Amino acid sequence: MPQAKSPIRPQPTGRPRTGARVAAVQALFQAEQGPANPETVIDEFVRYRLGSNEAGTGFDDGRVEDVDVKLFVRIVRHAVTEQDRLDAMIVDTLAEGWPLDRLDPVLRAVIRAGAAELAMPDGAPVKVVINEYLDVSHGFFEGDEPRMANGVLDKLAHQLRPREFGAA
Question: How many domains does the chain have?
């Protein structure tokens, strides 16, 4: 499986919801990799990694400047509190014999963040969520991972929000 790009991605300015999604992926990745609990990671991001700062450091330094902080917190918390249920749904979309831990950890974070947002009944429309996470995954990967994220999120969207596809 190809290696992920650096988990730092240039971000277009003026897109705070996109910034929230990028930051949520980074936070979920960080929470999975380290000993800190997700609430500690959220606090660290809100205090030190979101918004502009006097030092002028930016995305290359792990900072996400233009962020909808409420959406960021909501995605990360929902991904964590619903992780067991969402992970089971994600595994069901993967090829037989392909365990979740076989996915690249950044790809796993992208899919978990997208799944969490799709699981929010009052969230953005399915097409918006999938397109945003497809864009985010392209920022992290150059191989087939964005296509995999797109396929998994599309299957999950059909399960989690069937009404948006015309099903009863």
Answer: 1
Residue 8 within any structural domain of the chain: no
With beta carbons less than 8 A apart as the criterion, state whether 29 and 166 touch: no
Residue 36 has pLDDT above 70, yes or no: yes
pTM of the model: 0.84
Can you give 2-61 as a three-state secondary structure string? Answer: CCCCCCCCCCCCCCHHHHHHHHHHHHHHHHHHCCCCHHHHHHHHHHHHECCCCCCCCHHH
Instruction: Please check whether residue 4 lies inside any domain of the structure.
Output: no
Query: What confidence score (pLDDT) does residue 168 get?
Result: 47
- Is residue 17 within 8 A of residue 68, CB to CB? The reply is yes
Q: With respect to residue 111, please indicate whether it lies within any of the assigned structural domains.
A: yes
Helix (H, G, I), strand (E, B) or coil at 101: helix
For residues 63 and 57, is the Cβ–Cβ distance under 8 A?
yes
Q: Is residue 38 part of a domain?
A: yes
